[in-house]
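Following up on my earlier thread - several people asked me to post the actual chain instead of describing it. Fair enough. Here it is, all 410 residues.
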Amino acid sequence: MTRLSFSRDRISIVLLEGIHPSAAEAFRARGYTNITTSAKTLDEDELIAQIANAHIVGIRSRTKLTERVLERCRRLFAIGCYCIGTDQVGLTASRLRGVPVFNAPYSNTRSVAEMVLGEVIMLLRGIHQKSLAVHRGGWPKTATHCFEARGKILGIVGYGHIGSQLSILAEALGMQVRFYDIERKLVIGNARACATLDDLLKDADVVTLHVPETPQTRHMIGAREIGLMKPGSMLVNASRGSVVEIEALAAALRSGHLTGAAVDVFPREPAGTTDRFESPLCGMDNVILTPHVGGSTEEAQANIGTEVAEKLMLYSDVGSTVGAVNFVQVSLPVKGGGTRFLHIHRNVPGALSRVNEVFSGRKLNISAQYLQTDPEVGYVVIDIDGPVEEADLLADLRAVDGTIRARCLF
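Reply from S.P.:
Thanks for posting it. Predicted structure:
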């Protein structure tokens, strides 16, 4: 009997965009040795050439895995986004090809929260303007328009992992925390929930944004919302570039309605480090501009490298899809013996019965079966006891009408 499941050293892994070495180290520790790494962001044609024969691909935020790229990666069975966002991947296209996508939604939480709190303090104290003035030879030694964080109202829009972590840190400084979220959230400490976004904007001395990129959050902070903010208040955006209308923000800063802002994400960001950045906010001394580095600490990147690698290996080794952002969630035990098959198929009537017929026709005992479906795709994991002729069985599974992908794990 020939074992068809790939040994780990034959599974090709490509890690792009300078993913932290902790990712490759995690793979190697588990026996994956066929690993290619690159610090570069590749254009589409270079990317296709690099990953055409890869089984697992790891990227960060700048690499675009479009449908054109995905259709040329015939061996690809999993994608890791070593960041929070996944909008750089064609999620539907990859799901319909049977390729789950995993990300790291939690590993950089502390890094982002710390940077935002630091920027809040810098804005309240006018540190950025004073630093620029001293660099130019000035000496603006004054307390005018400089404030303590203690007692100020911090308005947090989006009370998820980052927003709630920021809430804890801000309260430790003596700030009063208000938050708004579209979902009911457990209140931490003395924070208070606002019934509406408008209520929060009217109350806060500093507003900070921590929401995902969705159609509902696109331009959620525009001229009207900025107009509701207190005169002299400040805005921090470390969420997504599409959330704030940059032109409206620039106008409010020029008019003096807002006295400061800190922005880490932008509607249009350079594709690489050598490209020029342009924004209506450039040249404003009361605006802290950073190049999308909220989660860019050594600690966060190391944690992200390990977190995403673990999810990818769990899928590769066991078939578990827990944590996939575009795929049904199936949690699977590690099995000591037998043979495990994965079958991904279009969710059409009779698909599972046809898969089971492949096994029942050979009088094989199915010791366990795990199935989850969404409206378009079904995912079934089947454990078999006893000897199996894997080559013939896999060929029959792949011949089942509606099959997207079939694999033997072990």
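The two ends are 13 Å apart (CA to CA). That should answer part of your original question.
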